[in-house]
Each structure stands twice: as C-alpha cells, then as structure tokens.
C-alpha cells in the first residue's frame, strides 16, 4: 500500500518561503491573470497549508501585488540604464532591454498587463510604479530627469506605443529594426517640445 502523494513540507526561512511562493505565482502567471491565481493551488505546490501562506502575505491582494512586483522587477533588470554613453546610446539600451524582455516572454508580459488592468488598486499601483520607473530611465538617459509636464506625458505615451509594438512584433520584425524605429520616433516626438533629444535620423 503506497502513501498518498502529498508533497512533504520543507522547512524554509521566512524570506526563502516568501521567495518560493512568489516564484510559484510567477510561473503560474504565464497562462492566467494574477487574480485567477488560486492561493490553494500555490500553497499545495509549496507543500504548506493555505493558512500558512497567509502568514507570509496577510491577504490575497498582498500576495497578488507581490507577484506583480516581482514580475516587474524582472523586467526592470533587463531594461537597465547604462551609467555611461550619450543620450541615444543610453535610450537604445533601455529600449532594447525592455522590448527584448517583452518579446521573449510575451505570454508572461501580457499576463502582467492584464494584472495591471484588473482594477485592483494595489496591483494597479505596483504596475504604474513599473511604468513610471521606465519613463524616469528614459528621461534620465535624455539628460532631463525633471522635464516639462508635456515632455513627461509624451514619454509615457511613447512607452505605451513601444509596449504595444513589442507585444505585437512577430519574427518578421528584427529586434534591431524595432529598437531603431522606436528610438528615432522618440526623437521626432520630442523635437517640437525643445527637449534634450535623441536626434532623429
């Protein structure tokens, strides 16, 4: 007679357990919106009770926000702002990292976008922080971290376009072609505003 195939509970530090639970959520996020993650399923996979999961995350919303925040941090690690280089080179690095991440992990990123659009204020706040960080990196690369409000708005709108194009780009659009188009487009968008520019070609 065999024992039930119940996953044995492994004793982890609080930090390691939180990391494990967030990691499970990130994996499951690939094929469902964050609000459809089952905390019962997550706890079972971790080999703990549902109640113990709530020891690490007080509510479902806190858990969902932690998963979205971790997904966003992964994206931001790929869209790093170089410390050196001219404006165009630095913008190109951020854009290349961002669009490359989105294209390689399209399903995960679309799930992240759906999470941000899900209407939960806590998750929306986390997602907005991610987008705001990307915008600040672009503005810093341009040499204008405290721009006119219209310049900041233009960069946020351009980022929305970059996101949509990265999601929709298929194999027929080369990575370098997409990045070049977006960087040139940013220069043309900002030129009438007199902002420090990535010069259009």
From TrEMBL:
Ranges of the DNA-binding region feature: 38-57
Gene3D superfamilies with a match to the protein in the record: Tetracycline Repressor, domain 2
Hydrolase listed as a keyword: no
Organism: Streptomyces radiopugnans
UniProt-recorded Gene Ontology molecular function terms: DNA-binding transcription factor activity; transcription cis-regulatory region binding
Identification of the protein by name: Transcriptional regulator, TetR family
Domain (HTH tetR-type) ranges: 15-75
Keywords: DNA-binding, Transcription, Transcription regulation
Pfam families: TetR_C_46, TetR_N
PROSITE patterns reported in the protein's UniProt record: HTH_TETR_2 (PS50977)
């Amino acid at each position: 007679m065999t024992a039930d195939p119940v996953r044995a509970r492994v004793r982890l530090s609080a930090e390691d357990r939180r990391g494990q639970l967030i990691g499970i959520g990130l994996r499951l996020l690939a094929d469902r919106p964050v609000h459809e993650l089952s905390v019962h399923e997550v706890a079972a996979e971790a080999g703990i009770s549902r109640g113990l999961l709530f020891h690490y995350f007080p509510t479902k919303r806190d858990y969902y926000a932690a998963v979205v925040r971790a997904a966003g941090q992964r994206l931001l690690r790929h869209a790093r702002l170089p410390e050196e280089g001219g404006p165009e080179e630095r913008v190109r690095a951020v854009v290349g990292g961002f669009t490359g991440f989105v294209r390689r992990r399209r399903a995960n990123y679309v799930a992240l976008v759906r999470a941000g659009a899900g209407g939960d204020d806590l998750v929306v706040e986390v997602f907005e922080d991610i987008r705001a960080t990307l915008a600040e990196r672009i503005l810093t690369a341009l040499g204008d971290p405290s721009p006119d409000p219209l310049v900041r708005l233009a960069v946020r709108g351009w980022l929305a376009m970059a996101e949509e194009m990265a999601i929709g780009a298929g194999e027929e659009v080369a990575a370098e072609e997409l990045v070049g188009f977006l960087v040139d487009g940013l220069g043309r968008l900002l030129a009438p505003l007199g902002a420090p520019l990535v010069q259009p070609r």
